[in-house]
Amino acid sequence: LTNMGFIAAVDGEDGALLWIGEYPRLDARGRREAVRTENRWQANPILPVHEDLVIAPQDSPYLIGVEKTTGDITWQAPRENGSTLIGADGRACFVAGSEVTAFTHTGEERGRILWRRDIGAGPSGGASSHPLGRAALTWDAILLPTRGAVVTMSPSDGKLISRTLWDFAGGGGNLLLTSSLLAVTNPEGILVYGDRARERAW
User: Fold this and answer.
1) Is the model's pLDDT at 122 over the cut of 80?
2) Contact between 129 and 114 (Cβ < 8 Å)
3) Which of 80, 85, 30 is nearest to 59 (CA)?
4) Where does the chain have alpha helices with state H?
């Protein structure tokens, strides 16, 4: 993914070019404005989903599915306020921004919004509830870091499962999840949560 209007695939053994595909991108003025205001996709990895690759190019106003073997676009959905591609389960891919949105990636309705949730809504909302950092996805939960807490949501319908306040200053950060540990990185350092709420800070 070039973030310059096209995506290409090369052979993993000899580097031979397999295909090149183009995708819709912002015009020159739109790209400059997106960079200036930081209103664009963050740098997101390509997400393999069934026969497609889901991409979120920084120079495009869309979330896009492309066919793995040809690079042809199979579906697209407006980015709107999305910035981070969280991951995907068997039914949907999940995007975080000022809201969290689930887009279907299978069947004839690929690209359709399944649900959308504003995690800042409600009595505990506000600036401290806005996403801050890269989220993590498990088979039964979306873990979303915000300035005030880590928010756990259901991937099936977006309902709030829990909201756990951080126990360190600064709040938020990128999440990395393993089978037994949750690591949180931010400018203050790295905090690792393990079994039974044990944590180690660097």
Assistant:
1) no
2) no
3) 30
4) 28-37
Do the Cβ atoms of 198 and 186 come closer than 8 Å?
A: no
- Residues composing the chain: 202
Rounded to 5 degrees, what angle do the CA atoms 169, 170, 172 make? 120
Q: What is the overall mean pLDDT for the chain?
A: 87
What b/e readout covers 127-159, taking b as 16+ CB neighbours within 10 angstroms?
ebbbbbbbbbbeeebbbbbbbbbbbbbebeebe
Instruction: Say what the pTM is.
Output: 0.86
Question: Which single residue is written with the structure tokens 């969290």?
Answer: 100
Residue 160's CB: how many other CB atoms inside 10 A?
A: 14
d(CA 93, CA 113): 10
Highest mean pLDDT: which of 141-155, 165-179, 183-197? 141-155
Burial class (CB in 10 A: 0-12, 13-18, 19+), 81: middle
Element (H, E) at 117: strand 113-117
